[in-house]
UniProtKB/TrEMBL annotation:
One of its GO terms (biological process) is regulation of DNA-templated transcription. The modification 4-aspartylphosphate is found at D53. It comes from the Bacteria. Residues 133-232 bind DNA. The keyword Aminoacyl-tRNA synthetase does not apply. This is Two-component system, OmpR family, response regulator ChvI. Residues 133-232 form the OmpR/PhoB-type domain. One of its GO terms (molecular function) is transcription cis-regulatory region binding. It comes from Belnapia rosea.
Amino acid sequence: MPATIALVDDDRNILTSVSMTLEQEGFTVRTYTDGESALQGLLARPADLAVLDIKMPRMDGMELLQRLRQRSAMPVVFLTSKDEEVDELMGLRLGADDYITKPFSQRLLLERIRALLRRNEASRAEGSGTPAGGVIVRGDLVLDETKHTCLWKGTDIQLTVTEFLLVKALALRPGMVKNRDQLIDAAYGENIYVDDRTIDSHVKRVRKKFRQADDDFAQIETLYGIGYRYKES
């Protein structure tokens, strides 16, 4: 079955041109011109991935992402303008997996979509170096790749695809420092350029989610100027 992509943008020219490109590549595409209709449509019929504009009528992309994240870990790509750096960071903190700056190359968007879909599929399968059964146990942390679930002290932690892959990369080698380039490769794949601040924003959000379940969570350590490591409890 072809993957279904949801495009949400109030610019009909973008919807038309991007839809044509994606459909030519074999994707099924559903389009929405505002956040409210997109929310209703995606809750009724989930997609495999969503591409969201930030500035839209009725409900902007930020609120739409927040609402979606209450129900879904579906991969999300944000479309931002060059002067919206704050929005990019906020979007990542709210749970976006990636962002692309307008004006953008449709080929670049296609590459990012394919990379996210591959990561989503890979995160649900047994990966290289993963113990039999696709389950990683590190003290109070339990990551199940086949079910895409994360438990901390028995509490379910809802992670996006990117967040799950970051935690997995750190937890696979407790005590080993991973620099940002290594984490970018683990979460995004090779040959995908992502700014360092993207990883930092994802890590901050991951920590926030764990601390909502456990105020004392301190397993993901920052080594300033170097990277991050997982400290096994």
